[in-house]
Amino acid sequence: MTKGGVRLDVLLNATTRRDEQGNVIGVVGIGQDITGRLAQEREYTRLIDSANAPIFGVDNFGKVTIWNKNAQKLVGYPSVEVMGRNLVEHFITPEHRARVQSVIDQALEGEETGVLMCEPYETLSIVLNLTKFAVIIL
Asked: How many independent structural domains does the chain possess?
């Protein structure tokens, strides 16, 4: 809290201070104001959840970390059933798993990429547009 009464979010790193003999004599703390970053993250979350497109995200292990309301509407799984589960293993049909995993792997390496899965006469076409932070189904 500032002297003027403004609340701040601070990331605090602390380490012990030691004397010449190695005895702990105190703590040194380094604080970083992350108030703005947290506000941006909350806005990002709000935008994802209110988007007109189904949006989901995966972590470096392919586990679902983001699942907005339109993703739920599209496939019928609520976020509580998908969060933390591997996207490709649990939610992609076997015939498309290798292609989707390849796109995710490329995105996790920093390459912007996408794949269109569409067979003649299929009733559902899915476009995956991946970035490092989110996967968007259109």
From this structure: 1
| Nearest-10 Cα torsion for 113, 100, 126, 136 | -60
For residue 17, give both structure tokens.
């201070």
Asked if 13 and 30 count as a contact pair (C-beta separation under 8 A), the reply is yes
Structural domain harbouring 119: 10-137
Per residue in 102-115, pLDDT tens? 888 888 888 776 65
Using DSSP, how many helices (H) and how many strands (E) does the chain show? 5, 7
pLDDT band of 134, cuts 50, 70, 90: very low
Separation between Cα atoms, residue 43 and residue 49, nearest integer Å: 10
Kindly report the CATH number assigned to the domain that includes residue 51.
3.30.450.20
pLDDT score for 117: 52
| Per-residue pLDDT reduced to its tens digit, 20-57 | 999 999 999 988 888 888 888 788 778 877 888 888 88
